[in-house]
Design brief:
single chain, mainly beta, Lipocalin, five-stranded antiparallel sheet, 2 helices, globular
Length: about 280
């Protein structure tokens, strides 16, 4: 009961603050001259930025974001529709789990990778109702030996009935889990290692990935059947900016990839939209 009261209090506090800090979204970030130009971008500052620090996904009608402890849903116009500021159930918080990474949407549910970001001993997938962002009670523990540096993302391929994960650092294989119960189906050897993948999304059977590699911040494509890795383009954000959330959705303005990044000002999140090269 105490936890419920705290969560509701935080939600009531943060939601209006998010709305009243719109003035700070005009903050701009200085990027390198060789920046790959996005089609468009938005800036979120201070309390609007906090719940957008980590993962990103979409159902085509709304944006879903994660931060270390919670979830937020907005319309395509970025207006808040649902907020679960402390989404991790108490049981898992007490185990030391304190980090929700790159999330994925499928069939009315948001799939969230959860890890204890100190020792990485307890990787989980938790499932939330996409309408309310409430925890559904579905939870799956992943094999720790396949996630020795945690589980930074989950990408659901609903049409194939599977979900994908990979190691955080120089992953040599793609892990493929059955969506119905998250038992391991197989691993697929990759043609090139995937390093520092912050988030990933499936579109038309292709797994697209956003890397926080060096200054380049690369966008990659993976064939989950053959393991072939293709480098698509570099965002060239520089080393001081951290790539975070990522999703895929073709838009009327020509954009296809949608990415968030934390600027050198830590209270600023930049949401950028890129065309397919």
């Amino acid at each position: 009961m105490f936890r419920i009261i705290v969560i509701r209090a935080l939600a009531l506090l943060v939601a209006p603050l998010c709305l009243f800090t719109a003035w700070i979204t005009g903050m701009t970030e200085t990027y390198p001259e060789n920046l790959t130009e996005p089609v468009s971008s938005q800036n979120f500052g201070l309390f609007e930025a906090i719940p957008r620090y980590q993962g990103l996904t979409t159902d085509g009608e709304a944006w879903y974001y994660s931060w270390n402890l919670g979830l937020i849903k907005t319309g395509m116009d970025h207006k808040i529709e649902a907020l679960n500021f402390i989404a991790i159930p108490l049981k898992y918080l007490l185990q030391g789990n304190n980090h929700i990474g790159g999330i994925s949407y499928w069939d009315g549910k948001v799939y969230c990778p959860l890890e204890d970001s100190a020792e990485y001993l307890r990787p989980y997938i938790l499932v939330y109702d996409a309408e309310t962002l409430r925890f559904t009670g579905e939870v799956y523990e992943l094999p720790q030996e396949l996630h020795v540096d945690g589980v930074s993302f989950v990408a659901v391929d609903g049409l194939r009935g599977v979900a994908y994960t990979a190691e955080w650092s120089n992953a040599a294989v793609l892990n493929i889990f059955r969506l119905e119960d998250f038992t391991l189906k197989e691993t697929v050897t990759l043609s090139a290692p995937l390093d520092r993948i912050q988030d990933a999304e499936v579109y038309d059977g292709v797994l697209y990935c956003a890397s926080d590699n060096g200054a380049e911040k690369s966008i990659l494509a993976v064939d989950p059947v053959t393991g072939e890795v293709t480098h698509l383009f570099d965002r060239n954000l520089g080393r001081d900016i951290e790539a975070e959330g990522f999703t895929v959705l073709p838009m009327a303005d020509g954009s296809f990839f949608h990415c968030t990044a934390i600027g050198s000002i830590p209270v600023n999140v930049v949401f950028s939209h890129y065309a397919m090269p």
